[in-house]
Amino acid sequence: MKELYAIGARAASVEIASHRLTSEALVNACIDRIRAREDDVRAWAHVDVEAAIRVARKRDLQSPRSLLHGIPIGIKDIIDTGDMPTEYGFPLQERRGIQATLLIRLAVHRVGQQQR
Prior knowledge:
Layout: H1 9-17, H2 23-41, H3 49-60, H4 103-113
């Protein structure tokens, strides 16, 4: 069996909907993997662990309503969001003000709203 962090969104969606997996367990597995590999991979500019776990717990209390219900996603730091730093992978942009929640987050939200 694959490690939990590697099962993929479709499989995770099925497992969450059938109550064989919690969003919190999946998020924690992903966070553990990030922590284990980040020194080598250096893929993350920002990870809000507390917010990720808080949202996962909230999702676990709800009945799954969509294909992405409880599935963690990462947003590249070249995309402006209202709640995370946006640095464009460039030191001079570090810590600049956040201006907008962009279309990609809306698109992910809409995909997540699709009924099962």
